[in-house]
Each structure stands twice: as C-alpha cells, then as structure tokens.
Specification:
With 220 residues, the protein is α/β, with parallel strands linked by helices. It is built from eight helices and seven strands, in the order ααβαβββαβααααββ.
Length: 220
C-alpha cells in the first residue's frame, strides 16, 4: 500500500458547495459508478444474506442522494417500503417516494422504527468520531439489521479515477470528489473497529474486489 493511503484524509468535497445545475451531472455520474463499477453488485450479493426474499420489509436509506439504492431494493424486494433520506433537496430530486429531507445526525425516528437501515457511499465523508455516532444511531433505528456499503481506501481506485475521465466521460466534479473520497475511505479493519466502538458487537465487514467496496452488516 502506498504510504499516502495508510490513514484516512477527509477534505470538503466540491458537490457540497455547488449550485443545482452543477451538482446534477455529478449525481448522475454517481449512479453510473454504482451501476457499472460494483456498488449495485455488492448490494445484490449482500442483501439476500440478511433479508429474506419474501419479506415485506421496511428500509431507511440514509444519504440516499438520487435514490438508486431504493430502486435496487424495490427490484429485489417488490413488497418492500424504502424511505430515501438526504439533507440536500437537489440530491433527492430523482429519488423515488417516499423521501425525506433530514440531517443524519438528528434522525427524526424512534428506536427500531425500520426493519433495516442502509447507507451507501456516505460514511467516508465524516471523521471517525462522527462515523461512530452515525453507526450507533443507524443500528438503534433498525429492528432487524444494518447494511453499510462504502469505499475501500486503496491506490488503485485512486489511479482509476484519474486515468478514466476521457474513457467514461466523468464530470470534472466527479473526478475531483472521487479522488477525495478514495483518500477518505476505509480499510476493513478500520470499519470493524468503528462498528465495535459504536457498540455493534456482531458487525461483519467484507471486502469486495475489484469494486474496492466494503460491506458492513449487522443482524439482530
């Protein structure tokens, strides 16, 4: 591992500070990245291990952005109900209903309101102490289980974002924020330790290659 990637480096991302007309192309890229580069395939492999196919479950997707996770869950579980939650109205424009504008650090739900809480490509935006707070709250709201998918910090996806802009036609913000996201991402042992600190003793973290994604699951 390159020594530059031995520790997390969290920097403000461009998407958080641009007007809607500049944010929308990047949001579309993020959906495309999930679809083509492994985000959705990790969810497809991981969800059946914790959710029965016939279960009419309720889900909360925190940091949902364009709602592509909700679309995937509804494809896999036609009887499911998925609430997409994000703090930014532009992010949620294309998310399916029901959707909710709210702060992940002040979720308006009582313990065990939903069967499952999901979060994808969200935790890496925050410092470790904030990640612990979020994981603790996510798990409290879930009555049956938690699934968090995020990036694995590694030099290869960092180089990939730099070298494939012209091939995939990535938006400029996608590349700038993508590089920051990889530097802010986790190693498997780091995410395991943060889950343990959050009091989630039964959490399991699995790495998925070549997507360079980590999937944290915890079933009650």
């Amino acid at each position: 591992m390159n020594p530059l990637f031995t520790e997390r480096l969290i920097e403000p991302e461009v998407l958080d500070h641009v007007p809607p007309e500049k944010a929308r192309p990047n949001l579309a890229d993020l959906v495309r990245i999930n679809r083509v580069l492994g985000g959705h395939s990790v969810l497809r492999r991981t969800l059946p291990a914790i959710v029965k196919s016939s279960e009419p479950a309720t889900f909360l997707d925190v940091g949902a952005a364009s709602g592509d996770t909700a679309h995937l869950v509804r494809e896999l579980y036609p009887n499911a109900s998925v609430v997409s939650l994000d703090y930014n109205s532009t992010n949620l424009e294309k998310a399916p209903r029901p959707k909710l504008l709210a702060d992940a650090f002040a979720l308006p739900f009582r313990p065990r309101t939903f069967d499952y809480v999901l979060s994808s490509l969200f935790l890496h935006h925050f410092e470790n102490r904030q990640v612990v707070t979020l994981l603790r709250e996510f798990y409290a709201i879930a009555s049956k289980g938690l699934l968090v998918c995020d990036l694995e910090r590694h030099v290869l996806p960092y180089l990939f974002m730099r070298t494939t802009k012209s091939i995939f036609g990535w938006n400029d913000i996608t590349v700038q924020d993508g590089l920051k996201s990889v530097r802010a991402a986790f190693r498997r042992t780091e995410l395991e330790a943060l889950a343990e600190e959050a009091g989630i003793a039964n959490a399991t973290v699995v790495g998925h290659r070549p997507a360079f994604r980590l999937a944290l699951t915890a079933v009650r």
